[in-house]
Amino acid sequence: MATTGLEGVVAATTRLSDVDGERGELVIAGFPVAELASNATFEETTWLLWHGDLPTGKQLDDFRRELGAQREIPEATHRLLRDCAKADVDPMDALRIAAGTISLESEDQSAIVAKFPTIVAAFWRLTKGQTPIAPREDLDHAANFLYMLDGEEPNAERVRGLETYLNTVVDHGFNASTFTCRVITSTGSDLVSAVVGAIGALKGPLHGGAPGPALETVFEIGDAARAEQVLRGKLQSGERLMGFGHRVYKVRDPRADVLGAAAERLYRRAGDMSLYTLARHVEATAIRLLEEFKPGRRLQTNVEFYTALLLHGIGLDVSLFTPTFAISRVSGWIAHALEQREAARLIRPKSEYSGRRDRTWTPIQNR
Ligand code: ACO
């Protein structure tokens, strides 16, 4: 009997990232995730994935300018986003719909990365009845995204927090959205088609859709004394605890440590540790109860739990969590698409047929 989720199947060779689920290690283009995440700007991380090495000062300046110059989105995209806001569509659906329109002007890989934050910020403001704020060329990628949300130039701590997040989740082996992107690319299709398909895969709650519900659980608990009762109730009724468990990691997701430390710094500087302390308690209780309800499954904290805490601390609305994940991961998707083009091999696995055979045709009047 074939596995239904391709667990453990090696589908490609990649130089982009390595996920060791038993040791809880993630390497991104040669760097342990903690080393890269807290030092790099998002431009440096994107360059690293696309070119294999860190950029020189001149390369980085040129790349910054290249991204900055391509942030504007076409008027047709703005119109579609207005319609999406009126129809109250899900933010990831709005991103998917709008990302497809990037082909109107360019299919260049930098243009795709440059326009994602503009789409996400514009849609978010429209859903709140506000006019989108035009991007600024002089700001870096992360700072410009925060600026487009509220029109304020963000302080260095918020920018550093967001860059740490974007660097941490930029690539992660053959996760579902990256696999989707590579399958589409392997047919000889274009980059915009590949990232649009990947957005669809990222949207689901088993992949990128978990941080919102993870934070909502922490808010629902509200007080550490209620953690056990609320989480036990969820597990008793068969619910999954969002932000826990992973297909590959059987120990703590190393990204949870990087994001947890970034969140702690942010909340400490802001002078209010109450949400952070509550989240730590919820996490410890969840891990204990998961071991009780699912013994031997080794369910640990995944990236989404601290994503939620960090992005909330930066001041992002829950509805922005998964689109912000896409703003980062699109650089990784494109790196994989480029690698897939080099491999130049159609991805086309087999299926095992479990249906009937040798049926004979029944005319409509006899059915
Ligand atoms: N809460 C409760 N039970 C869980 C959880 C959870 N978070 N995760 C897994 N389990 C249980 C399953 O019900 C299953 O139990 P069973 O064997 O008694 O039926 C067992 O643990 C194994 O789970 P699988 O579904 O086989 O594990 P899989 O590898 O398919 O799932 C996944 C991984 C989808 C991430 C899962 O752990 C989950 O649903 N987590 C919650 C959602 C979440 O946090 N998603 C973000 C993932 S990180 C990312 O993609 C960026």
Structure description:
The chain is an all-alpha fold and 367 residues long. It has one domain (13-347): Citrate Synthase, domain 1 (Orthogonal Bundle), CATH 1.10.580.10. The protein has helices at 33-39, 42-51, 57-68, 75-86, 91-99, 109-127, 141-150, 156-168, 176-186, 191-203, 211-221, 227-236, 254-270, 274-293, 303-314, 321-343, and strands at residues 17-20, 25-28, 31-32. The protein has a three-stranded antiparallel sheet. The protein starts with 16 loop residues before the first strand and ends in a 24-residue tail after the last helix. 45% of the residues are buried. The model has no long low-confidence stretch (mean pLDDT 95). Acetyl coenzyme *A binds next to α15.
Helical region count? 16
CATH topology: Citrate Synthase, domain 1
Strand order of the largest sheet: 1-2-3
Instruction: List how many beta strands DSSP finds.
Output: 3
CATH C-level label: Mainly Alpha
Describe the largest sheet.
3 strands, antiparallel
Instruction: Name the shape in a single word.
Output: globular
What is the number of domains?
A: 1
Average pLDDT for all residues: 95
Strand content: under 5%
Cα-atom Rg, whole angstroms? 21 Å
Cα-to-Cα separation, first versus last residue: 33 Å
Order of helices and strands: EEEHHHHHHHHHHHHHHHH
The small-molecule ligands in this entry are: acetyl coenzyme *A
CATH architecture: Orthogonal Bundle
Q: CATH-wise, what's the superfamily?
A: Citrate Synthase, domain 1
Structural class: mainly alpha
Low-pLDDT runs: none
How much helix is in the residues?
Answer: 55-70%
